[in-house]
Amino acid sequence: MVALRIGIDLGGTKTEAIALDMSGREVCRYRTMTPQGDYAATIRTIRELVETIEAETGSSGSVGIGIPGTISPKTGVVKNANSTWLIGKPFDRDLEAALGRPVRLANDADCFALSEATDGAGSGAATVFGVILGTGVGAGIVVQGRLVAGPNAIAGEWGHNPLPWPTDDERPGYECYCGRRGCIETFLSGPGLARDHGGSLSAAEICASAAPDCEAALRRYEQRLARALAAVINIIDPHVIVLGGGLSKITRLYQSVPRLWGPWVFSDHVETIIKPPIHGDSSGVRGAAWLWPSKTT
Ligand SMILES: [Zn+2]
User: Can you give the pTM of this predicted structure?
Assistant: First the structure.
């Protein structure tokens, strides 16, 4: 009998685990360092976290895991992970063997979107686009409470589309690690904002500064985010867009971006709501737990 939903968020430096009871209430939470470059130790760490939770609560749980990457439907192994020691490994099957139960994996942006759509800022909305604006830029799409999972396992990977409607000075754009140029991520990630400002300050320092050059960089950032989200609205027309990641803490975005996106949305009126996250940094681990929705447990 499954009485808990256990979520694991495997980050680049730390791994967090949470247990939710069947009503979604947090029962316990643990955090440990992610073993660097060691695949077997990563599996062991996750197993120990699950064992610790189950020993403490006296209950067993379903297990969902958020990873910085995704399992390729074609090959069955991890791709697109910046925790490179996972790449090429059948991580889900190895975890199932270690834990003795089925596990569900999703990338961290998908977990964020699912968490906010289930009982966060997008709760009750039919369609939620959850965006991570952090070291990288990613997103997940939740429709009727379910993550959209396409045949390539890349739904929401909008950060590697080109910045839409670029101005002359935004072309051809910076090189991206994905091999292309001018990706949305190169403009809207934290490092992207810092580089756009000139590279002398971090994104957090730019946001905290009242200097005119910082204000100008933030205005360019808002303008670009508005264009990038307008392109999303034109394709999936989400009811709610939830921002996450470090840059979602820039409170002015929630007023400025809806004022700016109108000219690029193919509609006479834009009803789309843009919101900050409710669960903040906990959204990844909560979303991993929600990979097992109530209907199937
Ligand atoms: Zn890219």
Answer: 0.93
What is the Å distance from ligand 1's center to 16 Cα? Answer: 27
Residues 252 and 249: their CA atoms lie apart, in Å, by 9
- Non-local CB neighbours of 56 within 8 Å, separated by 6+ positions: 28
**According to DSSP H, which parts of the chain are helical?**
39-57, 91-99, 108-119, 184-188, 190-197, 203-208, 212-236, 253-260, 283-289
185 CA → ligand 1 middle, Å: 6
Q: Please name the residues in contact with 161: beta carbons below 8 A apart, sequence gap of 6 or more.
A: 183, 184, 228, 231
CA of 174 to the centre of ligand 1 (A): 9
Say how many Å lie between the CA of residue 79 and the centre of ligand 1.
15
Residue-wise pLDDT tens for the chain (297 aa)?
568 999 999 988 899 999 999 989 999 999 999 999 999 999 999 999 999 999 999 999 999 999 988 888 889 898 877 778 888 999 999 999 999 999 999 998 999 999 999 999 999 999 999 999 998 899 999 999 999 988 988 999 999 999 999 999 999 999 998 899 999 999 999 999 999 999 999 999 999 999 999 999 999 999 999 999 999 999 999 999 999 999 999 999 999 999 999 999 999 999 999 999 999 889 999 999 999 976 443
Residue 269 Cα, ligand 1 centroid: separation in angstroms?
Answer: 31
User: Measured in angstroms, how far is the CA atom of residue 66 from the centroid of ligand 1?
Assistant: 21
Q: How far is the CA of 202 from the centre of ligand 1 (A)?
A: 21
User: Going by DSSP bridges, is the β-strand pair 2-10/60-67 parallel, antiparallel, or unpaired?
Assistant: parallel
In angstroms, what is the span from residue 176 Cα to ligand 1's centroid?
A: 5
Q: Which residues contact 282 (CB under 8 A, 6 or more apart)?
A: 18, 115
- Domains of the chain plus CATH, in order, are 4-109+282-289 (3.30.420.40), 121-277 (3.30.420.40)
- Token digits of residue 154: 């890349």
